[in-house]
Amino acid sequence: MRNRRKGTRAGLTVAQENRLDDLARDVCMIRAGAALVEDEGRKQWWGACQRCRRTMWLAWCHVFTRGAWSVRWDPDNYFAWCAGCHRMMDQYWEKKRDFTIERIGEARFSALKMRSNGTRIDYAAVEIMLKMERAAMGVNDGGGA
Fold first, then answer.
1. Under 8 Å between Cβ of 96 and 63
2. For residue 7, is it within any domain?
3. Rounded CA gap, 18 and 12, in Å?
4. Whose CA is closest to 22, among 97, 127, 132, 122?
5. Across residues 128-133, what is the average pLDDT?
6. Does 126 fall in a domain?
7. Residue 102 belongs to a domain
8. pLDDT in tens, 14-38
9. How many domains does the chain have?
10. Whole-angstrom Cα distance, residue 82 to residue 76?
11. Which run of H or of E encompasses 64?
12. How far is the C-alpha of 63 from the C-alpha of 10, rounded, in Å?
């Protein structure tokens, strides 16, 4: 299990948090056209980085940190980047902001920024939204691409 923390945080159990993380990661990687590779139960994604376009292992990367619970699972808040781009984008906020605006537009970025400031969210609704988005991409409830 990725998350060894016990109890709850932000009203979620560890299992609920991990389930939402897995759903959002699936949506992110499927949207990027990445291929799922499972090795001894560990999910990894192989595909083209959404920033540099090089084909390699990808990570689920956030514009606003995963600690911003109000946008942690928001599809406008994450991208599939390689390790190099992830590191660079985390070090240079202006580049990350500009990339995001180029991808989602100024209005959606402004709305995302406002939501990142602690808006309360309904986790059950987030799970339904992620499942619907994944289903719209032609993926069943079992997960993966």
1. yes
2. no
3. 10
4. 127
5. 94
6. yes
7. yes
8. 999 999 999 999 999 999 999 999 9
9. 1
10. 18
11. none
12. 20
Is 115 part of a structural domain of the chain? yes
Q: Residue 53 is part of which domain span? A: 13-130
CB 76, CB 104: distance < 8 Å: yes
Residue type, 129: M
Band of pLDDT at residue 7, cut at 50, 70 and 90 = low
**Which backbone phi and psi does 5 adopt, to 5 degrees?**
-65, 145
Residues 114, 129, 20, CA angle at the centre, nearest 5°? 85
Confidence grade of residue 116 (pLDDT, cut at 50, 70, 90): very high
CB atoms within 10 A of CB 48: 16
**Are the beta carbons of 52 and 89 closer than 8 angstroms?**
no
List the one residue out of 54, 65, 51 whose CA is nearest residue 113: 65
Place of tokens 């406008």: 76
